[in-house]
Write a structure and sequence with these properties.
single chain, about 500 residues, mainly alpha, two-stranded antiparallel ribbon
Length: about 500
């Protein structure tokens, strides 16, 4: 979800004036309506928290069902929060209020105050901050039942833990974007210089390479302690030919079941495990999880994501600019068309390019990410597989081929057990839904939640299908390679075509 959230927050921070205010609300009324929206959202969160605490007091035996329902409610409220804040920005005129009132005079020009665009998504951040504080009571109650012997966060510690994640995953990239916009407003002559444009483009890959170095201090991560588990992980990494900087432990007080890999180069690459996944999973399943993360590196997914998103954002930025110009031209040529007035209104012209970019990220990048996750799943199976495709179990005498060259039944079943355990520990509900309207809505919501990784049920079904059709994996890998290189090639061709069509100077200006 961070990628989608980064995109939406960045879109809200675009320095485009004027933003829409279709209800023609005054700044004071706009602030009142926006504040009321925030309060309504926090009230909804408080009701969820109160319901969960009441249910746990009355029906402790149903704690798993209560936890699952609570997780579903939180996920629904996440999307409701996004929609409600978008309503405040686009319908209640909150963005227009910020851009009209938070201004300074710079060399005789009235411009938006430095970093004032961060006030546009501020209602969403206030909702998030309030929800963390409200949800704490429900989280602590669930934690006390699930792990009575393990300590939990204080309320302030719980909120700060979430703030640290938000600062790293959303605050840093959005902050750099807003800083660039602020500089363009206050010192436009600098941003027009060729050296600045070159430096801006060069800074992006440098940040992508070095950003993982900030993860350890910002999230309070620790090196995985010496011991049998770390020794086992290091032996697996050597067998797979995987280089990294460190294996890290993420202390979450048992509130997260996750593992991840960050870093483009081995000198700044970490594999991170939360405390609960290390405590709740058997060692063979943890090896499969590590194999999954190594698979992302071995298949070059991190590099591919960086190149794909960089090229895509460049093409979309120029394409959005061209779309805006063409829409204006069409509106001028046919002013009698009912939608012409909207196309000629600056306050609405930001929306078509933004909608195009949002749809592209959700559909195209989501599709790619799900395929890459499936590749990593297969590698996770291979990491704990022997050379005998039909083996019925492993023991201490089992010999594992180097560089994950084998794929056996035991390896597949080991990784599948790990996926299903993560689903259970995370309280993910993927039950079959009815064909009623409500059932279809819940099924759609489940797919939306899994837009980057696919549902665990689908991932498991694919892996189990390899038991009876081993050749399917090779066909799948071939299709994914063609897809990845085809998309990168198409983006490069599109960028070259745009540069040739509109001129490279104009292209740089549009960026």
């Amino acid at each position: 979800m961070p990628i989608l959230l980064i995109f939406l927050v960045t879109a809200a921070c675009l320095d485009r004036a004027p933003w829409p205010n279709p209800l023609q609300l005054s700044p004071a009324l706009s602030a009142v309506f926006t504040g009321s929206t925030v309060l309504l959202l926090l009230t909804a969160a408080f009701r969820v928290r109160t319901r969960v605490r009441g249910q746990l007091q009355q029906e402790r035996s149903l704690k798993h069902a209560i936890a699952s329902a609570y997780s579903a409610s939180r996920r629904r409220l996440f999307f409701v929060n996004l929609g409600a804040v978008a309503l405040a920005v686009l319908l209640f005129g909150w963005a227009r209020t910020v851009h009209d009132t938070c201004t300074v005079v710079r060399e005789g020009r009235v411009v938006l105050a430095p970093f004032a665009e961060l006030l546009v998504p501020l209602p969403y951040f206030l909702v998030m901050l309030g929800c963390w504080s409200i949800y704490f009571d429900a989280e602590r109650a669930l934690h006390a039942l699930a792990s009575p012997s393990r300590s939990f966060w204080s309320r302030s510690g719980y909120v700060v833990n979430h703030l640290r994640q938000l600062a790293l995953m959303v605050g840093l990239p959005v902050g750099l974007f807003v800083a660039q916009q602020t500089l363009a407003r206050t010192e436009p002559e600098i941003t027009r210089a060729d050296w600045y444009r070159i430096a801006s483009f060069a800074t992006v890959p440098v940040l992508l390479v070095l950003m993982p170095l900030l993860i350890k201090p910002l999230l309070g991560l620790q090196s995985l302690p010496e011991g049998p588990l770390r020794d086992r992980f290091e032996a697996l990494a050597r067998r797979l030919g995987f280089r990294y900087t460190d294996l890290l432990l993420w202390p979450t007080k048992g509130s997260a079941v996750n593992a991840m890999i960050v870093g483009l180069v081995p000198q700044a690459r970490y594999v991170i495990f939360t405390d609960r996944i290390l405590e709740e999973m058997p060692e063979d399943e943890l090896e499969a999880v590590l194999g999954h993360e190594v698979g992302h590196a071995k298949h070059g997914h991190i590099w591919f994501y960086a190149a794909f998103l960089l090229l895509s954002m460049t093409v979309l930025a120029v394409g959005g600019w061209i779309l805006e110009v063409n829409l204006r031209t069409a509106a001028l040529e046919h002013p009698d068309v009912w939608y012409a007035e909207y196309l000629l209104d600056d306050s609405w012209m930001a929306l078509p390019p933004l909608a195009l970019a949002a749809g592209y990220i959700f559909l195209v990048f989501g599709f790619l990410s799900r395929r890459c996750e499936r590749q990593a799943d297969v590698y996770g199976c291979r990491a704990v597989s022997c050379a005998d495709r039909h083996c019925d179990g492993h023991d201490n005498a089992t010999i594992y081929p180097l560089h994950a060259k084998g794929l056996c039944r035991t390896g597949i079943h080991t990784f599948v057990r790990g996926l299903e355990r993560v689903k259970l520990l995370s309280g993910i509900d993927e039950a079959e839904h009815s064909r009623s309207v409500g059932g279809r809505v819940r099924a759609l919501a489940a797919l939306l939640r899994a837009w980057l990784h696919s549902t665990i049920a689908r991932r498991v079904n694919f892996l189990l299908s390899l038991l009876d059709d081993p050749e399917r994996e090779q066909r799948f890998q071939h299709r994914v390679r063609l897809l990845r290189w085809g998309l990168l090639g198409s983006l490069i061709v599109a960028l070259l075509a745009l540069g040739t069509t509109v001129g490279w100077n104009q292209l740089i200006q549009a960026l």
